[in-house]
Amino acid sequence: MTAPILQITDLTRNFGGVVAVNGFNMTVEHGMIAGLIGPNGAGKTTVFNTVSGFYRPNAGRIVFEGRDITGSPAHRICRYGIARTFQNIRLFGNATAVENVMVGGHVRRKKQWWMPLVFWPGVMEEERSIRSRAEELIRRVDLERYRNEKAGALPYGAQRRLEIARALATEPTFLLLDEPAAGMNPQETEELMQFIKRLRDEFGLTILLIEHDMKVVMGVCERIWVLDYGRLIAEGDAERIQRDQRVIEAYLGDSIDAAADGGGERAGAGPESGTEGESC
Ligand SMILES: Nc1ncnc2c1ncn2[C@@H]1O[C@H](COP(=O)(O)OP(=O)(O)OP(=O)(O)O)[C@@H](O)[C@H]1O
Ligand SMILES: [Mg+2]
Protein backbone atom coordinates (compact mmCIF):
# COMPACT_ATOMS: atom_id res chain seq x y z
CA MET A 1 0.00 0.00 0.00
CA THR A 2 1.33 3.45 -0.95
CA ALA A 3 1.09 6.41 1.43
CA PRO A 4 -2.40 7.69 2.17
CA ILE A 5 -3.24 11.19 0.96
CA LEU A 6 -6.61 11.36 2.74
CA GLN A 7 -7.70 9.64 5.93
CA ILE A 8 -11.23 10.04 7.24
CA THR A 9 -11.93 8.58 10.66
CA ASP A 10 -15.35 8.17 12.32
CA LEU A 11 -16.82 11.10 10.40
CA THR A 12 -20.31 12.10 11.51
CA ARG A 13 -22.51 14.96 10.30
CA ASN A 14 -26.10 15.58 11.40
CA PHE A 15 -28.75 17.89 10.03
CA GLY A 16 -31.30 18.28 12.81
CA GLY A 17 -32.54 14.74 13.42
CA VAL A 18 -31.00 13.36 10.20
CA VAL A 19 -27.65 11.64 10.56
CA ALA A 20 -26.38 12.23 7.02
CA VAL A 21 -22.97 10.62 7.64
CA ASN A 22 -22.53 8.20 10.50
CA GLY A 23 -19.06 7.08 11.66
CA PHE A 24 -17.62 6.98 8.14
CA ASN A 25 -14.05 5.75 7.56
CA MET A 26 -12.01 6.02 4.38
CA THR A 27 -8.32 5.94 3.47
CA VAL A 28 -7.39 7.07 -0.04
CA GLU A 29 -3.90 6.36 -1.37
CA HIS A 30 -1.82 8.78 -3.44
CA GLY A 31 -2.55 8.65 -7.17
CA MET A 32 -5.67 6.53 -6.83
CA ILE A 33 -8.97 7.00 -8.63
CA ALA A 34 -11.48 6.24 -5.88
CA GLY A 35 -15.27 6.03 -5.96
CA LEU A 36 -17.97 6.83 -3.42
CA ILE A 37 -21.35 5.34 -4.28
CA GLY A 38 -24.72 4.65 -2.70
CA PRO A 39 -28.43 5.41 -3.04
CA ASN A 40 -29.94 8.90 -3.09
CA GLY A 41 -29.59 10.59 0.28
CA ALA A 42 -26.91 8.11 1.47
CA GLY A 43 -24.59 10.95 2.53
CA LYS A 44 -22.09 11.04 -0.35
CA THR A 45 -22.23 14.77 -1.05
CA THR A 46 -22.14 15.43 2.69
CA VAL A 47 -18.81 13.59 2.84
CA PHE A 48 -17.52 15.89 0.06
CA ASN A 49 -18.89 18.95 1.83
CA THR A 50 -17.12 18.10 5.07
CA VAL A 51 -13.82 17.16 3.38
CA SER A 52 -13.82 20.37 1.34
CA GLY A 53 -14.72 22.54 4.35
CA PHE A 54 -18.23 23.56 3.28
CA TYR A 55 -19.66 21.87 6.40
CA ARG A 56 -18.05 21.25 9.76
CA PRO A 57 -18.36 17.65 10.92
CA ASN A 58 -20.10 16.94 14.24
CA ALA A 59 -17.50 14.30 15.02
CA GLY A 60 -14.52 12.57 13.49
CA ARG A 61 -11.22 13.50 11.93
CA ILE A 62 -10.06 14.35 8.42
CA VAL A 63 -6.32 14.23 7.71
CA PHE A 64 -5.00 15.40 4.34
CA GLU A 65 -1.32 14.89 3.44
CA GLY A 66 -0.56 14.36 7.13
CA ARG A 67 -2.31 17.59 8.22
CA ASP A 68 -5.47 17.60 10.34
CA ILE A 69 -7.95 19.68 8.31
CA THR A 70 -11.07 18.81 10.34
CA GLY A 71 -13.35 21.86 10.43
CA SER A 72 -10.94 24.09 8.45
CA PRO A 73 -12.69 26.64 6.22
CA ALA A 74 -13.16 25.90 2.52
CA HIS A 75 -10.74 28.56 1.25
CA ARG A 76 -7.93 27.15 3.41
CA ILE A 77 -8.62 23.54 2.40
CA CYS A 78 -8.53 24.69 -1.21
CA ARG A 79 -5.08 26.18 -0.66
CA TYR A 80 -3.92 22.91 0.91
CA GLY A 81 -4.68 21.30 -2.46
CA ILE A 82 -8.24 19.91 -2.41
CA ALA A 83 -10.49 21.08 -5.25
CA ARG A 84 -13.99 20.01 -6.11
CA THR A 85 -16.82 20.17 -8.59
CA PHE A 86 -20.50 20.28 -7.68
CA GLN A 87 -23.40 17.90 -8.20
CA ASN A 88 -25.38 20.82 -9.66
CA ILE A 89 -23.00 22.70 -11.93
CA ARG A 90 -21.99 26.04 -10.45
CA LEU A 91 -20.54 28.22 -13.16
CA PHE A 92 -20.83 31.93 -13.81
CA GLY A 93 -23.25 31.45 -16.69
CA ASN A 94 -22.76 34.95 -18.14
CA ALA A 95 -18.97 34.87 -17.99
CA THR A 96 -16.86 33.21 -20.70
CA ALA A 97 -15.25 29.81 -20.31
CA VAL A 98 -11.82 31.40 -19.84
CA GLU A 99 -13.14 33.87 -17.25
CA ASN A 100 -14.67 31.00 -15.27
CA VAL A 101 -11.33 29.19 -15.15
CA MET A 102 -9.59 32.43 -14.13
CA VAL A 103 -11.76 32.44 -10.98
CA GLY A 104 -9.96 29.26 -9.95
CA GLY A 105 -6.59 30.91 -10.66
CA HIS A 106 -7.44 33.80 -8.35
CA VAL A 107 -7.41 31.41 -5.38
CA ARG A 108 -3.59 31.24 -5.72
CA ARG A 109 -3.21 34.98 -6.36
CA LYS A 110 -0.51 36.66 -4.30
CA LYS A 111 -1.74 40.23 -4.75
CA GLN A 112 -4.62 41.57 -2.63
CA TRP A 113 -8.04 42.46 -4.07
CA TRP A 114 -7.61 46.21 -3.41
CA MET A 115 -4.24 46.53 -5.20
CA PRO A 116 -5.71 47.09 -8.70
CA LEU A 117 -7.65 50.04 -7.25
CA VAL A 118 -4.42 51.91 -6.53
CA PHE A 119 -2.53 50.64 -9.61
CA TRP A 120 -0.25 48.51 -7.45
CA PRO A 121 2.81 47.32 -9.44
CA GLY A 122 2.71 43.73 -10.65
CA VAL A 123 -1.09 43.39 -10.50
CA MET A 124 -1.59 43.52 -14.25
CA GLU A 125 1.26 41.09 -14.77
CA GLU A 126 -0.25 38.62 -12.32
CA GLU A 127 -3.64 38.98 -14.00
CA ARG A 128 -2.04 38.27 -17.40
CA SER A 129 -0.38 35.17 -16.03
CA ILE A 130 -3.66 33.91 -14.50
CA ARG A 131 -5.34 34.44 -17.89
CA SER A 132 -2.64 32.61 -19.82
CA ARG A 133 -2.72 29.70 -17.37
CA ALA A 134 -6.55 29.58 -17.73
CA GLU A 135 -6.17 29.51 -21.54
CA GLU A 136 -3.69 26.66 -21.22
CA LEU A 137 -6.05 24.67 -19.00
CA ILE A 138 -8.91 25.25 -21.43
CA ARG A 139 -6.70 23.75 -24.15
CA ARG A 140 -5.71 20.79 -21.99
CA VAL A 141 -9.33 19.86 -21.28
CA ASP A 142 -10.19 20.19 -25.00
CA LEU A 143 -12.51 23.18 -24.66
CA GLU A 144 -10.56 25.57 -26.86
CA ARG A 145 -13.40 26.08 -29.31
CA TYR A 146 -15.59 27.34 -26.44
CA ARG A 147 -12.99 29.59 -24.80
CA ASN A 148 -14.84 32.86 -25.48
CA GLU A 149 -18.37 31.43 -25.27
CA LYS A 150 -20.58 32.17 -22.29
CA ALA A 151 -20.40 29.22 -19.88
CA GLY A 152 -24.20 29.01 -19.57
CA ALA A 153 -24.51 28.39 -23.32
CA LEU A 154 -22.15 25.38 -23.41
CA PRO A 155 -23.44 21.78 -23.76
CA TYR A 156 -23.67 19.88 -20.44
CA GLY A 157 -20.61 17.78 -21.13
CA ALA A 158 -18.54 20.90 -21.84
CA GLN A 159 -19.88 22.64 -18.71
CA ARG A 160 -18.80 19.69 -16.59
CA ARG A 161 -15.32 19.79 -18.15
CA LEU A 162 -15.19 23.53 -17.59
CA GLU A 163 -15.94 23.07 -13.90
CA ILE A 164 -13.09 20.57 -13.76
CA ALA A 165 -10.78 23.06 -15.52
CA ARG A 166 -11.71 25.70 -12.94
CA ALA A 167 -10.94 23.25 -10.15
CA LEU A 168 -7.57 22.49 -11.79
CA ALA A 169 -6.76 26.20 -11.86
CA THR A 170 -6.54 26.12 -8.05
CA GLU A 171 -3.54 23.75 -8.52
CA PRO A 172 -4.91 20.82 -6.53
CA THR A 173 -3.30 17.51 -5.69
CA PHE A 174 -6.68 15.99 -4.79
CA LEU A 175 -9.79 16.35 -6.90
CA LEU A 176 -13.35 15.63 -5.73
CA LEU A 177 -15.86 15.13 -8.56
CA ASP A 178 -19.54 15.04 -7.55
CA GLU A 179 -21.44 13.14 -10.26
CA PRO A 180 -19.28 14.18 -13.22
CA ALA A 181 -21.33 12.09 -15.69
CA ALA A 182 -24.75 13.47 -14.67
CA GLY A 183 -26.58 14.84 -17.70
CA MET A 184 -24.06 13.41 -20.17
CA ASN A 185 -25.02 11.36 -23.21
CA PRO A 186 -23.37 7.92 -23.71
CA GLN A 187 -20.62 9.30 -25.97
CA GLU A 188 -19.77 12.11 -23.53
CA THR A 189 -19.73 9.54 -20.71
CA GLU A 190 -17.32 7.34 -22.65
CA GLU A 191 -15.04 10.33 -23.27
CA LEU A 192 -15.32 11.33 -19.60
CA MET A 193 -13.92 7.96 -18.51
CA GLN A 194 -10.81 8.43 -20.64
CA PHE A 195 -10.60 12.07 -19.52
CA ILE A 196 -10.62 11.16 -15.80
CA LYS A 197 -7.77 8.69 -16.29
CA ARG A 198 -5.82 11.25 -18.35
CA LEU A 199 -6.36 13.91 -15.66
CA ARG A 200 -4.92 11.64 -12.98
CA ASP A 201 -1.86 10.83 -15.09
CA GLU A 202 -1.15 14.25 -16.64
CA PHE A 203 -1.81 16.35 -13.55
CA GLY A 204 -0.46 13.84 -11.04
CA LEU A 205 -3.76 13.89 -9.15
CA THR A 206 -5.58 11.69 -6.71
CA ILE A 207 -9.28 11.62 -7.65
CA LEU A 208 -12.34 10.75 -5.58
CA LEU A 209 -15.60 10.69 -7.47
CA ILE A 210 -19.26 10.25 -6.62
CA GLU A 211 -21.20 8.70 -9.45
CA HIS A 212 -24.43 6.83 -10.13
CA ASP A 213 -23.36 5.66 -13.57
CA MET A 214 -21.98 2.21 -12.76
CA LYS A 215 -20.16 1.97 -16.09
CA VAL A 216 -18.05 4.95 -15.05
CA VAL A 217 -17.56 3.72 -11.47
CA MET A 218 -16.63 0.18 -12.38
CA GLY A 219 -14.59 1.35 -15.39
CA VAL A 220 -12.32 3.89 -13.71
CA CYS A 221 -12.34 3.42 -9.90
CA GLU A 222 -9.59 1.33 -8.38
CA ARG A 223 -11.29 1.27 -5.00
CA ILE A 224 -14.92 1.90 -4.12
CA TRP A 225 -16.66 2.84 -0.87
CA VAL A 226 -20.41 2.26 -0.53
CA LEU A 227 -22.61 4.35 1.74
CA ASP A 228 -26.16 3.58 2.81
CA TYR A 229 -28.06 5.77 5.28
CA GLY A 230 -24.77 7.48 6.19
CA ARG A 231 -22.98 4.25 7.03
CA LEU A 232 -20.21 2.46 5.14
CA ILE A 233 -21.61 -0.89 4.04
CA ALA A 234 -18.79 -2.08 1.77
CA GLU A 235 -15.32 -1.22 0.52
CA GLY A 236 -13.21 -2.86 -2.15
CA ASP A 237 -12.41 -3.10 -5.84
CA ALA A 238 -15.08 -3.15 -8.56
CA GLU A 239 -15.30 -6.92 -8.70
CA ARG A 240 -15.80 -7.29 -4.97
CA ILE A 241 -18.38 -4.48 -4.79
CA GLN A 242 -20.43 -5.94 -7.64
CA ARG A 243 -20.60 -9.29 -5.83
CA ASP A 244 -21.40 -7.87 -2.37
CA GLN A 245 -24.91 -8.98 -1.38
CA ARG A 246 -25.50 -5.96 0.88
CA VAL A 247 -24.55 -3.56 -1.90
CA ILE A 248 -26.78 -5.37 -4.38
CA GLU A 249 -29.73 -5.17 -1.98
CA ALA A 250 -29.18 -1.55 -0.94
CA TYR A 251 -28.18 -0.09 -4.26
CA LEU A 252 -26.91 -2.03 -7.23
CA GLY A 253 -30.18 -3.87 -7.87
CA ASP A 254 -31.93 -0.52 -8.45
CA SER A 255 -29.03 0.90 -10.33
CA ILE A 256 -28.94 -2.01 -12.76
CA ASP A 257 -32.70 -1.50 -13.39
CA ALA A 258 -32.14 2.25 -13.85
CA ALA A 259 -29.29 1.59 -16.27
CA ALA A 260 -31.61 -0.59 -18.33
CA ASP A 261 -34.19 2.25 -18.35
CA GLY A 262 -31.88 5.09 -19.30
CA GLY A 263 -28.13 4.97 -18.87
CA GLY A 264 -27.96 4.85 -15.07
CA GLU A 265 -28.99 8.48 -14.55
CA ARG A 266 -31.56 9.37 -11.95
CA ALA A 267 -34.32 11.91 -11.99
CA GLY A 268 -33.17 15.19 -10.50
CA ALA A 269 -29.50 14.48 -11.02
CA GLY A 270 -29.11 16.67 -14.09
CA PRO A 271 -26.95 19.77 -14.06
CA GLU A 272 -28.16 23.26 -13.40
CA SER A 273 -26.24 26.06 -15.01
CA GLY A 274 -25.95 29.74 -14.36
CA THR A 275 -26.00 29.43 -10.59
CA GLU A 276 -23.45 31.03 -8.37
CA GLY A 277 -19.92 30.03 -9.35
CA GLU A 278 -17.37 28.80 -6.86
CA SER A 279 -13.77 27.92 -7.37
CA CYS A 280 -13.16 25.23 -4.77
N1 LIG B 1 -27.78 21.25 4.06
C1 LIG B 1 -28.59 20.27 4.47
N2 LIG B 1 -29.60 20.52 5.32
C2 LIG B 1 -30.41 19.53 5.74
N3 LIG B 1 -30.32 18.25 5.36
C3 LIG B 1 -29.33 17.94 4.50
C4 LIG B 1 -28.42 18.93 4.01
N4 LIG B 1 -27.52 18.33 3.18
C5 LIG B 1 -27.88 17.03 3.15
N5 LIG B 1 -28.95 16.80 3.93
C6 LIG B 1 -29.60 15.50 4.17
O1 LIG B 1 -28.58 14.56 4.45
C7 LIG B 1 -28.83 13.32 3.79
C8 LIG B 1 -27.66 12.99 2.88
O2 LIG B 1 -27.67 13.91 1.78
P1 LIG B 1 -26.54 13.94 0.67
O3 LIG B 1 -26.82 15.10 -0.21
O4 LIG B 1 -25.21 13.87 1.30
O5 LIG B 1 -26.83 12.57 -0.09
P2 LIG B 1 -26.21 11.98 -1.42
O6 LIG B 1 -25.72 10.62 -1.10
O7 LIG B 1 -25.26 12.93 -2.01
O8 LIG B 1 -27.51 11.82 -2.34
P3 LIG B 1 -27.70 12.04 -3.93
O9 LIG B 1 -27.21 10.77 -4.58
O10 LIG B 1 -29.17 12.20 -4.09
O11 LIG B 1 -26.93 13.24 -4.34
C9 LIG B 1 -30.16 13.48 3.09
O12 LIG B 1 -31.17 12.97 3.95
C10 LIG B 1 -30.28 14.97 2.90
O13 LIG B 1 -31.63 15.36 2.85
MG1 LIG C 1 -25.19 14.02 -3.75
What's the helix and strand layout?
Elements: E1 4-15, E2 18-29, E3 33-37, H1 44-51, E4 59-64, E5 67-68, H2 74-80, E6 82-84, H3 97-106, H4 123-140, H5 156-168, E7 174-178, H6 186-203, E8 206-210, H7 214-220, E9 223-228, E10 231-236, H8 238-243, H9 245-262
Parallel strand pairs: 3-8, 3-9, 6-7, 7-8
Antiparallel strand pairs: 1-2, 1-4, 4-5, 9-10
Any overview of this molecule?
This protein has 280 residues and is an alpha/beta fold. The chain has one domain (4-262): Rossmann fold. The protein has helices at residues 44-51, 74-80, 97-106, 123-140, 156-168, 186-203, 214-220, 238-243, 245-262, and strands at residues 4-15, 18-29, 33-37, 59-64, 67-68, 82-84, 174-178, 206-210, 223-228, 231-236. The strands form two sheets. A six-stranded mixed beta sheet has the order 6-7-8-3-9-10, sandwiched between helices. Helix 3 (97-106) crosses helix 4 and helix 3 packs parallel to helix 5 (156-168). The structure holds adenosine-5'-triphosphate (ATP) and magnesium ion. Adenosine-5'-triphosphate (ATP) is lined by residues 15, 18, 20, 38, 40-46, 87. Residues 44-45, 87 line the site of magnesium ion.
Brief account:
This protein is of the alpha/beta class and about 280 residues long. It has nine helices and ten strands.
